[in-house]
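Hi X.,

You mentioned you wanted examples for the new student's onboarding notes, showing what a folding record looks like when two proteins sit in one file. Here is a clean example. The first protein comes first, with its sequence line followed by its C-alpha cells.
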Amino acid sequence: MADPAGAGTDPLGLTGRTVVIGGAGTAGMSAARYLMTRDVHVVLADDRFASRDADAADRESAVAAVAGAAELISQGAEAVAIADLLADPSWTADTAVVIVSPGFAPTHDLVARAAAGGVPVWGEVELAWRVDAAGLLGEPRTWLVVTGTNGKTTTTSMLADIVERSGRSGAACGNIGLPVLDAMRATPRVDVLCAELSSFQLHWAPSVTPAAGVVLNVAEDHLDWHGTFDAYALAKAGALRGDIAVVGLDDAVASGLPGAGRRVGFTLNVPRHGQLGVEDSHLVDLAFGAGRLLPADVVHPAGPSGLADALAAAALALAIGVGRDAVEAALTDFRPAAHRGEVVATRDGIRFVDDSKATNPHAAQAAVAAYDRVVLIAGGLLKGASMDGMLTAVGDRLAGVVAIGRDRDLVVEAIARHAPEVPTVTVFTGDDGTVNVHRQGQTEPVLMSTQSSSAEASESDTAIAVMDRAVAEAWELAAASDPAPDAVLLAPAAASLDMFAGYGRRGDAFARAAVDIAGTSASR
C-alpha cells in the first residue's frame, strides 16, 4: 500500500479511512483524539481491552479501565484486543496506517503483520510532524529535539525555560510527558516545540527534521527493544537530521554520529571555534557568537552532567536565535524536577540525594560523578546493560553500595570485579515476604523485618519495606565511613518496575525513608 501522505486535497490521505492505534496509552490516545477531528475511523488496539468473546460487562469494564477510551468510543472509535485484530485476516486491507505507541518494538506482531500487509507504521511523533508540516494546525512550528541515554529530561526542561524567557511561546513535550500533538493543539499556540524524544520515538518518526537537535550521549540501554547497540545509536542519530546537529563531544559514541547539517559540539573542556564549553569557570559559546554565558557554579543540578545539559540546552536555543541574556537568566534560575539529583534530606552534613531517574548505568555514573564520595543505592531491572564501564569510571568514589531489586546480584558481582574494597549490602525479600539483609562477609542473610510477611501485604508495601531497610543500611555505611561521604545517593542504574510502579514511586519511597532517618522535612 502506498504511503498515504500527500494524497489529493487531504495532505495525510486519511480522511474517511481506518487508522489502527497500537496501544491506548498517553501517546496513542493523543493521536486518536486528533484523528477523530479529521473524520478518521479510529481503531484502538490494546491488550487491556477484553476479547470479542467476553461478555458485555467484562468488555465495558475493560474499556472503563483505559483512561479516555470510553469517550472516544462514544464518538465512534472502536476498541479491540490486539489478538482479535490480528485474528482478522482482512484488517490490513482496510487500514491506511498503523500508529504505534513507543513501547511497540519492530518485532511486535502488530508491527510485523502491518509490514507484511504493506501498511505504513508511524509513531505519534511522526503523525505530529506530518500534521505540522502540512499546516493542518496553522503555520509549521519550530522543532528542537533532545535525545540521549542520560540527561534528556533536564536538558529539555532547561531548553523550554530558555525559550519562554526569550519571550517566545515554547513547551516541553514528547517523552517528558506532554504528547507533541497535544502541545501543538494547545491554546495559546505553542510556536517552539522542545521535544524530548526517546530512541523508540525517533525510530518511529523517520520524517522528523528539526531546526536543531542534540544527542547528549549514547550508552547501552534498551537493547532488548532495539536488538543491537548499533541500532540503538542509529535511532538516536535521528535527532541530527536538521539544519544544526549538536553532539556531546565528551561522549565517544555521540561525538561520532552522523548529522545532516551544520555540526556543533559541546564539551566540559575549553571549547574550540564552533563549540560550546567551559572556560575560566564559565559556560562559553564559540559557535553562535554569544561568548561568555554564565558562571558554571550557578548551574543546577551541580556536577558534570548538569553542566553538559546546560550547554546542550544553550546550544539549541542559540541555534534558533535566542539571545544570550535569556540563556543566562533561565539557566541561573533553573532547578531540576523531582527525582533528578534532588537533595531530600541532610543529616550530620551528609545529603540524601534522590536520582531515581538514573535508570541506566550511564545515568548513574553521571550522578555519582557529581560527588567526591557517596554511598550508593542501586539495582532493579538492568535490561541487559553492563555496569562495568560505570564502575571503572567512578568506582573510586564509592564508600559503600546497597543493592536492591531483581538484578541486585549483578550489581554486587560488578562491584566485586571492579571495586572489591567497597563494602556491599544486599536487601531483598524472602519467599514469605520478609525483608532480609546480606552484608559483605556474612555467610547467611539476616532477617530484619516481618512487617511485609502478611498475606495481605501489597507488593508496594514490600517494596517500601525494602527501600526503608536499604536507606537504613546505606546510612550505617555512611556513618561508619572515614572520611565521611558527601551523600547517600539513590542512583539505581536500573529500571524500577520490578518493585515500583515507576521511578517516581521509587524516589518517593527513598525520600520518605531519608526524612525519617534525618529527622527533617523533605525539601520538595
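Then the second protein repeats the pattern, sequence line and then C-alpha cells:
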Amino acid sequence: MTLGELPLAPVTPLPEAGGDSGYVMTLDADGWPTALGRPGSADAGLPPAVLLPASMTMAALCTGGALDLLALNPYGALVHDGGRTLGVLEQDTVSAYLVTLSARGTLRGDTPAPLDAVLAGAYATPAARVVCRCGLLTTLTAYDAEFPPSCPGPGPDATPHPLAIRAE
C-alpha cells in the first residue's frame, strides 16, 4: 500500500488555520512546506517538515533511510503528490506498521532480491525541510542526530557551521 492510499490527517496552512485545526504547516515563498505541527505550538515554533512521496510504500518507508528523517518531527510527515500536499502521515500509523514488520522479522533485514535494483514507476526522494538558526533553509535526504550535517551559511561569505535546527 502506498502512502497516498493510507488514511492521512488533514493539514492547513498556518495563516488559514482555525482554532480547531488538527495540523498546521508553514510554507516558503514557493509554496513548499517548511514546518509541521499543531496550532497550539505555533507560537513556540513548529518542527521541520518531512516530505514523503505519495508513491512510496509503507514497507519502503520503514525499511529504508527515510525512516531516520521522521526523527525530525514528532507529529509525522507530509505526504506529497506532484507538489500537492495530501495530508499528514502520523507517527502512530508508522509506529503501528513498524510493530508488524518487527513481528515478522523484516525490519531493515530483508534478503536482497534481483528486482531491488529496479525502480518501478515514478520515483521521488523523501526529504526534510530544515531551517538553520542562521536562517538558511536546507533540504535533507538523510539525518543522524549524533552527527548533524553542516550548514553552508546564509551568504556567499558565510562560514560553514553545524546545522542547528530552528523552530519555524
